[in-house]
């Protein structure tokens, strides 16, 4: 009986589970999922939970029920690749034949003093809940800063505007314009929407320090009622520890550079999926699922004694959709640039399909 251990019940880990359990030929295999939450969470929607426009029960999906799958609700404290073991906070130790690491990402604070301890986050459901509690207690007309003008920052700011029309919302971004990874048509559309909805954009920001309810931009303090940090991500701390211990090569984002079979070099039984794994694509739920699809195929071949293919198929992602509240959005689908209601409807449809075709 082979033992597959999956660390993390995010998009990549869940996709591997779904694909393996759907194959009735996958026998003599026990799958252990280690995930401290009792459910899979829709992380791409945590900005709405933080803003207060969605209740957390709408962002939960139950894990599949199958006699081959066992869910261990615990926290991982150490991964010992040389010993094929995983240590848990409860004191238990798991031994594996194959391991999938899908522990996701954390906020990256870029060494800014006070940023880690004194800002709010949307990187986990627990932290998004806490953010919502604080935001809802901000007094009428209070000032809320969002640091980071990428997709997460933009969606958080726009959803917060929908939740609290009274707030003074300020989005700080270090670039010349927000959403710098998108074409001009899209970031210009979003910028105009922000202006129309009274969200202030501070471009060319340089956050030098954060104190409780004080943000220092270029060294100048600004008093605020809440500060939300969305200025970049990095792999989970356990993955960063592995990287240091085994001198693993990483990309500029700190993601581990894996083999073409998604394994860690020198550890052919350890697969990396999601935000911890390097890719030509930006981190996303869609990318994690595509990697999970390939890992599931590779595991089935391995367990059947079949060779891996010489070349792996290229992962084709469908595009990116972003929301501006509940009625407007923007997106990039291949070469097509979408703005207005259509991309928002498309995003809602994608979310509905995912929620109703995942889990048990």
UniProtKB/TrEMBL annotation:
Pfam families: Pyr_redox_2. InterPro entries: FAD/NAD-bd_sf (IPR036188), FAD/NAD-binding_dom (IPR023753), NADH-Q_oxidoreductase (IPR051169). The keyword Coiled coil does not apply. Belongs to the NADH dehydrogenase family. GO terms for molecular function: NAD(P)H dehydrogenase (quinone) activity. The keyword Oxidoreductase applies. Its cofactor is FAD. Residues 3-292 form the FAD/NAD(P)-binding domain. This is NADH dehydrogenase. Keywords: FAD, Flavoprotein, Oxidoreductase. GO terms for biological process: aerobic electron transport chain.
């Amino acid at each position: 009986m082979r033992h597959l251990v999956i660390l993390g019940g995010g998009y990549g880990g869940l996709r591997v589970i779904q694909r393996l359990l759907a194959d009735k030929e996958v026998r003599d295999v026990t799958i252990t999922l280690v995930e401290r939450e009792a459910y899979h969470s829709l992380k791409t929607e945590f900005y709405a939970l933080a803003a207060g426009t969605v209740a957390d029960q709408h962002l939960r999906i139950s894990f599949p029920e199958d006699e081959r799958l066992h869910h261990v609700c615990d926290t991982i404290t150490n991964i010992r690749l040389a010993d094929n073991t995983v240590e848990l906070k409860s004191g238990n130790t798991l031994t594996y034949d194959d391991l999938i690491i899908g522990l996701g990402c954390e906020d990256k604070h870029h060494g800014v003093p006070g940023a880690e301890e004194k800002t709010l986050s949307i990187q986990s459901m627990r932290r998004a809940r806490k953010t919502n509690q604080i935001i809802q207690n901000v007094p009428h007309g209070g000032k809320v800063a969002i640091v980071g003008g990428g997709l997460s920052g933009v969606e958080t700011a726009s959803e917060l505007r929908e939740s609290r029309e009274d707030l003074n919302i300020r989005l700080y971004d270090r670039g010349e314009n927000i959403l710098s990874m998108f074409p001009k048509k899209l970031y210009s559309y979003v910028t105009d929407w922000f202006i129309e909805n009274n969200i202030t954009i501070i471009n060319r920001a340089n956050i030098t320090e954060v104190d409780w309810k004080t943000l220092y931009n270029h060294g100048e303090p600004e008093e605020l009622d809440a500060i939300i940090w969305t200025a970049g991500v990095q792999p989970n701390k356990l993955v960063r520890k592995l990287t240091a211990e085994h001198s693993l090569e990483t990309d500029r984002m700190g993601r581990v550079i894996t083999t073409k079979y998604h394994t860690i070099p020198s550890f052919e039984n350890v697969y990396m999926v999601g935000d911890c794994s390097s890719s030509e694509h930006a981190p996303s739920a869609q990318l994690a699922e595509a990697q999970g699809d390939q890992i599931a195929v590779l595991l089935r071949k391995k367990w059947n004694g079949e060779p891996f293919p010489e070349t792996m198929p290229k992962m084709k992602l469908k595009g990116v959709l972003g929301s501006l509240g509940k009625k407007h959005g923007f997106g990039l689908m291949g070469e097509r640039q979408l703005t207005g209601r259509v991309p928002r409807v498309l995003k809602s449809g994608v979310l509905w399909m995912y929620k109703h075709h995942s889990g048990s």
